[in-house]
Design a protein that fits this description.
29% of the residues lie in helices and 26% in strands. With 294 residues, it is of the alpha/beta class. It has a domain of 70 residues. It has a six-stranded mixed sheet, sandwiched between helices. The protein is globular, with a radius of gyration of 21 Å. It binds adenosine-5'-diphosphate (ADP) and magnesium ion (MG). Magnesium ion binds next to helix 1.
Length: 294
Amino acid sequence: MTPPSSAPSSAPSPARGPATGPALGSTLAIEVSGLVVDCGGTRILRGVDLDVTRGEWVTVIGPNGAGKSTMLRAIGGALPSSGAITLFGTPLGSLSRTARARLVATVAQHPIVPPGIGVLDYVLLGRTPYIPPLGRESRQDLEVVSATLRRLDLARFASRALETLSGGERQRVFLARALAQEPQVLLLDEPTTALDIGHQQDMLELVDELRAAEQITVLATTHELSIAGEYADRLVLVAAGQIVAAGPPEQVLTADLLAKHYGARVRVIDGENGPLVVPVRATTRRGPPATGQP
Ligand code: ADP
Ligand code: MG
Protein backbone atom coordinates (compact mmCIF):
# COMPACT_ATOMS: atom_id res chain seq x y z
CA MET A 1 0.00 0.00 0.00
CA THR A 2 1.20 3.47 -0.79
CA PRO A 3 1.26 6.13 1.93
CA PRO A 4 -2.22 7.42 2.62
CA SER A 5 -1.30 10.84 1.25
CA SER A 6 -1.33 9.52 -2.29
CA ALA A 7 -4.41 10.18 -4.35
CA PRO A 8 -6.56 7.11 -4.78
CA SER A 9 -6.25 5.56 -8.19
CA SER A 10 -8.86 3.43 -9.84
CA ALA A 11 -6.32 0.69 -10.52
CA PRO A 12 -5.64 -1.32 -7.38
CA SER A 13 -1.98 -1.63 -6.53
CA PRO A 14 -0.52 -5.12 -6.83
CA ALA A 15 -1.13 -7.30 -3.80
CA ARG A 16 1.84 -6.84 -1.50
CA GLY A 17 1.70 -9.21 1.35
CA PRO A 18 3.78 -9.06 4.48
CA ALA A 19 7.09 -10.84 4.01
CA THR A 20 6.32 -13.54 6.55
CA GLY A 21 2.56 -13.49 6.22
CA PRO A 22 0.10 -15.17 3.92
CA ALA A 23 -0.15 -14.52 0.19
CA LEU A 24 -3.03 -12.16 -0.45
CA GLY A 25 -4.49 -14.13 -3.33
CA SER A 26 -7.39 -15.36 -1.23
CA THR A 27 -10.54 -13.34 -1.94
CA LEU A 28 -11.70 -13.99 1.60
CA ALA A 29 -9.87 -11.54 3.86
CA ILE A 30 -11.57 -12.71 7.05
CA GLU A 31 -13.21 -16.08 7.73
CA VAL A 32 -14.68 -16.63 11.15
CA SER A 33 -16.44 -19.81 12.07
CA GLY A 34 -17.90 -20.96 15.38
CA LEU A 35 -16.17 -18.11 17.24
CA VAL A 36 -16.67 -18.42 20.98
CA VAL A 37 -15.23 -16.03 23.58
CA ASP A 38 -15.53 -16.49 27.34
CA CYS A 39 -14.52 -13.71 29.75
CA GLY A 40 -14.55 -13.99 33.52
CA GLY A 41 -16.68 -17.16 33.38
CA THR A 42 -19.29 -15.58 31.09
CA ARG A 43 -19.84 -16.58 27.47
CA ILE A 44 -19.59 -13.31 25.51
CA LEU A 45 -19.63 -14.63 21.92
CA ARG A 46 -21.70 -17.76 21.28
CA GLY A 47 -20.64 -19.16 17.94
CA VAL A 48 -20.18 -16.39 15.39
CA ASP A 49 -19.75 -17.16 11.68
CA LEU A 50 -18.64 -14.34 9.40
CA ASP A 51 -16.88 -14.08 6.03
CA VAL A 52 -15.55 -10.75 4.73
CA THR A 53 -14.31 -10.53 1.16
CA ARG A 54 -11.14 -8.63 0.30
CA GLY A 55 -12.02 -4.97 -0.28
CA GLU A 56 -15.43 -5.31 1.35
CA TRP A 57 -16.73 -2.99 4.10
CA VAL A 58 -18.79 -4.78 6.74
CA THR A 59 -20.16 -2.90 9.75
CA VAL A 60 -21.23 -4.65 12.93
CA ILE A 61 -24.14 -3.04 14.76
CA GLY A 62 -25.96 -4.07 17.90
CA PRO A 63 -26.99 -2.79 21.31
CA ASN A 64 -24.53 -1.95 24.12
CA GLY A 65 -22.89 -5.07 25.48
CA ALA A 66 -23.88 -7.24 22.48
CA GLY A 67 -20.28 -8.35 21.87
CA LYS A 68 -19.18 -6.09 19.00
CA SER A 69 -15.88 -4.99 20.54
CA THR A 70 -15.20 -8.52 21.72
CA MET A 71 -15.65 -9.79 18.15
CA LEU A 72 -13.21 -7.24 16.73
CA ARG A 73 -10.68 -7.88 19.49
CA ALA A 74 -10.81 -11.63 18.88
CA ILE A 75 -10.40 -11.18 15.10
CA GLY A 76 -7.46 -8.82 15.71
CA GLY A 77 -5.79 -11.46 17.86
CA ALA A 78 -6.09 -9.42 21.07
CA LEU A 79 -8.28 -11.94 22.92
CA PRO A 80 -8.16 -15.69 23.35
CA SER A 81 -11.04 -17.40 21.58
CA SER A 82 -12.11 -20.78 20.32
CA GLY A 83 -13.47 -21.62 16.90
CA ALA A 84 -11.63 -20.69 13.71
CA ILE A 85 -10.34 -17.29 12.54
CA THR A 86 -8.55 -17.20 9.20
CA LEU A 87 -7.00 -14.17 7.51
CA PHE A 88 -6.37 -14.50 3.77
CA GLY A 89 -6.53 -18.25 4.16
CA THR A 90 -4.02 -18.45 7.03
CA PRO A 91 -5.16 -19.33 10.57
CA LEU A 92 -4.74 -16.29 12.83
CA GLY A 93 -2.89 -18.35 15.43
CA SER A 94 -0.17 -19.41 12.99
CA LEU A 95 0.79 -15.82 12.07
CA SER A 96 3.75 -14.30 13.88
CA ARG A 97 3.02 -11.10 15.80
CA THR A 98 4.81 -9.08 13.14
CA ALA A 99 3.05 -10.76 10.23
CA ARG A 100 -0.28 -10.20 11.94
CA ALA A 101 0.51 -6.54 12.60
CA ARG A 102 1.41 -5.99 8.94
CA LEU A 103 -1.89 -7.52 7.95
CA VAL A 104 -4.38 -6.13 10.47
CA ALA A 105 -4.57 -2.75 12.21
CA THR A 106 -7.12 -2.02 14.90
CA VAL A 107 -8.55 1.21 16.16
CA ALA A 108 -9.83 0.10 19.56
CA GLN A 109 -12.84 1.66 21.23
CA HIS A 110 -10.67 2.83 24.13
CA PRO A 111 -7.02 2.70 22.99
CA ILE A 112 -4.36 2.64 25.67
CA VAL A 113 -2.21 5.75 25.42
CA PRO A 114 1.32 5.69 26.89
CA PRO A 115 1.42 8.62 29.38
CA GLY A 116 3.10 11.74 28.03
CA ILE A 117 3.58 10.42 24.48
CA GLY A 118 3.65 12.94 21.63
CA VAL A 119 1.39 12.65 18.57
CA LEU A 120 4.22 11.91 16.13
CA ASP A 121 5.73 9.25 18.39
CA TYR A 122 2.31 7.66 18.89
CA VAL A 123 1.66 7.42 15.14
CA LEU A 124 5.20 6.10 14.70
CA LEU A 125 4.19 3.14 16.89
CA GLY A 126 2.19 2.03 13.84
CA ARG A 127 5.52 1.39 12.09
CA THR A 128 6.71 -1.06 14.77
CA PRO A 129 6.10 -4.15 12.58
CA TYR A 130 8.48 -2.69 9.95
CA ILE A 131 11.31 -1.73 12.32
CA PRO A 132 13.84 -4.50 13.04
CA PRO A 133 14.33 -5.54 16.68
CA LEU A 134 16.77 -3.11 18.33
CA GLY A 135 16.68 -1.05 15.10
CA ARG A 136 15.55 2.51 14.50
CA GLU A 137 12.83 3.83 12.25
CA SER A 138 13.92 4.39 8.65
CA ARG A 139 13.40 7.49 6.55
CA GLN A 140 10.54 5.66 4.86
CA ASP A 141 8.87 5.05 8.22
CA LEU A 142 9.06 8.77 9.00
CA GLU A 143 7.76 9.63 5.53
CA VAL A 144 4.77 7.33 5.95
CA VAL A 145 4.02 8.88 9.35
CA SER A 146 4.19 12.48 8.13
CA ALA A 147 2.12 11.68 5.03
CA THR A 148 -0.49 10.06 7.27
CA LEU A 149 -0.53 13.05 9.65
CA ARG A 150 -1.03 15.40 6.69
CA ARG A 151 -3.76 13.20 5.21
CA LEU A 152 -5.72 13.32 8.47
CA ASP A 153 -5.17 17.04 8.97
CA LEU A 154 -3.03 16.35 12.05
CA ALA A 155 0.36 17.73 11.00
CA ARG A 156 -0.03 20.78 13.25
CA PHE A 157 -0.36 18.52 16.28
CA ALA A 158 2.78 16.46 15.56
CA SER A 159 4.76 17.77 18.52
CA ARG A 160 1.84 18.04 20.96
CA ALA A 161 1.31 15.58 23.82
CA LEU A 162 -1.50 13.25 22.72
CA GLU A 163 -3.42 13.71 25.98
CA THR A 164 -3.74 17.48 25.34
CA LEU A 165 -5.79 16.91 22.16
CA SER A 166 -9.59 17.04 22.09
CA GLY A 167 -11.50 13.76 21.94
CA GLY A 168 -12.13 14.13 18.21
CA GLU A 169 -8.53 15.07 17.42
CA ARG A 170 -7.33 12.07 19.43
CA GLN A 171 -9.69 9.76 17.54
CA ARG A 172 -8.09 10.90 14.27
CA VAL A 173 -4.64 10.21 15.74
CA PHE A 174 -5.76 6.66 16.60
CA LEU A 175 -6.77 6.14 12.97
CA ALA A 176 -3.47 7.68 11.83
CA ARG A 177 -1.54 5.11 13.84
CA ALA A 178 -3.58 2.30 12.26
CA LEU A 179 -3.05 3.67 8.73
CA ALA A 180 0.68 4.12 9.33
CA GLN A 181 0.71 0.37 9.87
CA GLU A 182 -0.22 -0.02 6.15
CA PRO A 183 -2.55 -2.91 6.88
CA GLN A 184 -4.64 -5.02 4.53
CA VAL A 185 -7.48 -5.18 7.05
CA LEU A 186 -8.75 -2.30 9.20
CA LEU A 187 -10.74 -3.14 12.32
CA LEU A 188 -12.46 0.06 13.44
CA ASP A 189 -14.34 -0.04 16.75
CA GLU A 190 -16.67 2.98 16.85
CA PRO A 191 -14.12 5.12 15.00
CA THR A 192 -16.35 8.18 14.65
CA THR A 193 -17.98 8.37 18.09
CA ALA A 194 -16.11 11.50 19.21
CA LEU A 195 -16.14 13.26 15.85
CA ASP A 196 -18.28 16.14 14.66
CA ILE A 197 -20.35 15.43 11.56
CA GLY A 198 -17.78 16.98 9.19
CA HIS A 199 -14.86 15.03 10.59
CA GLN A 200 -17.01 11.88 10.64
CA GLN A 201 -17.56 12.24 6.92
CA ASP A 202 -13.89 13.08 6.26
CA MET A 203 -12.76 9.98 8.14
CA LEU A 204 -15.24 7.63 6.51
CA GLU A 205 -14.54 9.03 3.03
CA LEU A 206 -10.81 8.58 3.60
CA VAL A 207 -11.27 4.97 4.66
CA ASP A 208 -13.51 4.42 1.65
CA GLU A 209 -10.90 5.95 -0.70
CA LEU A 210 -8.23 3.66 0.72
CA ARG A 211 -10.52 0.73 0.27
CA ALA A 212 -11.09 1.60 -3.39
CA ALA A 213 -7.43 2.38 -4.09
CA GLU A 214 -5.77 -0.40 -2.10
CA GLN A 215 -8.50 -3.01 -1.70
CA ILE A 216 -8.29 -2.61 2.06
CA THR A 217 -10.90 -4.67 3.88
CA VAL A 218 -12.89 -2.84 6.57
CA LEU A 219 -14.67 -4.38 9.53
CA ALA A 220 -16.16 -1.63 11.71
CA THR A 221 -18.65 -1.16 14.51
CA THR A 222 -20.86 1.83 15.09
CA HIS A 223 -24.00 3.11 16.76
CA GLU A 224 -24.61 5.56 13.91
CA LEU A 225 -27.09 3.41 12.04
CA SER A 226 -27.72 5.72 9.09
CA ILE A 227 -23.99 6.20 8.55
CA ALA A 228 -23.51 2.43 8.87
CA GLY A 229 -25.94 1.95 6.01
CA GLU A 230 -24.29 4.67 3.89
CA TYR A 231 -20.77 3.23 3.94
CA ALA A 232 -21.00 -0.51 4.51
CA ASP A 233 -21.62 -3.06 1.80
CA ARG A 234 -23.11 -5.31 4.40
CA LEU A 235 -24.33 -4.95 7.97
CA VAL A 236 -24.17 -7.57 10.68
CA LEU A 237 -26.53 -7.18 13.65
CA VAL A 238 -25.21 -8.75 16.85
CA ALA A 239 -27.32 -9.29 19.96
CA ALA A 240 -26.35 -11.20 23.10
CA GLY A 241 -23.20 -12.60 21.49
CA GLN A 242 -24.80 -13.93 18.32
CA ILE A 243 -25.40 -12.69 14.79
CA VAL A 244 -29.15 -12.24 14.50
CA ALA A 245 -29.28 -10.59 11.06
CA ALA A 246 -26.84 -9.94 8.24
CA GLY A 247 -27.08 -8.60 4.72
CA PRO A 248 -27.34 -5.40 2.73
CA PRO A 249 -28.36 -2.37 4.86
CA GLU A 250 -31.99 -2.41 3.68
CA GLN A 251 -32.39 -5.94 5.02
CA VAL A 252 -30.90 -5.21 8.43
CA LEU A 253 -32.03 -1.63 9.13
CA THR A 254 -35.71 -2.39 9.53
CA ALA A 255 -37.95 -0.88 12.19
CA ASP A 256 -38.91 -4.39 13.37
CA LEU A 257 -35.33 -5.63 13.85
CA LEU A 258 -34.27 -2.40 15.56
CA ALA A 259 -37.31 -2.51 17.86
CA LYS A 260 -36.66 -6.14 18.72
CA HIS A 261 -32.93 -5.90 19.42
CA TYR A 262 -32.42 -2.28 20.55
CA GLY A 263 -35.86 -1.71 22.05
CA ALA A 264 -35.89 1.40 19.84
CA ARG A 265 -38.75 3.29 18.22
CA VAL A 266 -37.54 4.37 14.81
CA ARG A 267 -38.79 5.26 11.39
CA VAL A 268 -36.72 3.98 8.46
CA ILE A 269 -36.82 6.17 5.37
CA ASP A 270 -35.22 5.77 1.94
CA GLY A 271 -32.01 7.77 1.56
CA GLU A 272 -29.89 8.37 -1.52
CA ASN A 273 -27.46 5.58 -0.60
CA GLY A 274 -29.61 3.35 1.56
CA PRO A 275 -31.99 3.43 4.49
CA LEU A 276 -31.90 6.28 7.01
CA VAL A 277 -32.91 5.56 10.59
CA VAL A 278 -34.77 8.32 12.41
CA PRO A 279 -35.61 7.96 16.12
CA VAL A 280 -39.20 8.76 17.01
CA ARG A 281 -40.24 9.97 20.46
CA ALA A 282 -42.81 7.92 22.35
CA THR A 283 -45.08 10.69 23.54
CA THR A 284 -46.72 13.28 21.35
CA ARG A 285 -45.10 16.71 21.55
CA ARG A 286 -46.45 18.83 24.38
CA GLY A 287 -46.50 22.61 24.31
CA PRO A 288 -44.74 24.69 26.97
CA PRO A 289 -46.43 24.63 30.40
CA ALA A 290 -49.21 27.16 30.76
CA THR A 291 -48.02 30.26 32.65
CA GLY A 292 -51.42 31.42 33.79
CA GLN A 293 -50.82 34.73 31.95
CA PRO A 294 -53.49 35.81 29.48
P1 ADP B 1 -20.21 -4.05 22.77
O1 ADP B 1 -18.94 -3.62 22.13
O2 ADP B 1 -21.17 -4.70 21.82
O3 ADP B 1 -20.89 -2.93 23.51
P2 ADP B 1 -18.48 -5.75 24.35
O4 ADP B 1 -17.95 -6.69 23.35
O5 ADP B 1 -17.58 -4.66 24.83
O6 ADP B 1 -19.88 -5.16 23.86
O7 ADP B 1 -18.93 -6.57 25.64
C1 ADP B 1 -19.86 -7.62 25.54
C2 ADP B 1 -20.21 -8.11 26.93
O8 ADP B 1 -19.09 -8.74 27.49
C3 ADP B 1 -20.62 -6.99 27.89
O9 ADP B 1 -21.69 -7.45 28.67
C4 ADP B 1 -19.37 -6.81 28.73
O10 ADP B 1 -19.70 -6.35 30.02
C5 ADP B 1 -18.83 -8.21 28.77
N1 ADP B 1 -17.37 -8.28 28.97
C6 ADP B 1 -16.43 -7.75 28.18
N2 ADP B 1 -15.19 -7.99 28.68
C7 ADP B 1 -15.38 -8.69 29.82
C8 ADP B 1 -14.50 -9.23 30.82
N3 ADP B 1 -13.18 -9.10 30.73
N4 ADP B 1 -15.07 -9.91 31.87
C9 ADP B 1 -16.41 -10.05 31.95
N5 ADP B 1 -17.27 -9.56 31.05
C10 ADP B 1 -16.77 -8.88 30.01
MG1 MG C 1 -17.95 -1.85 22.07
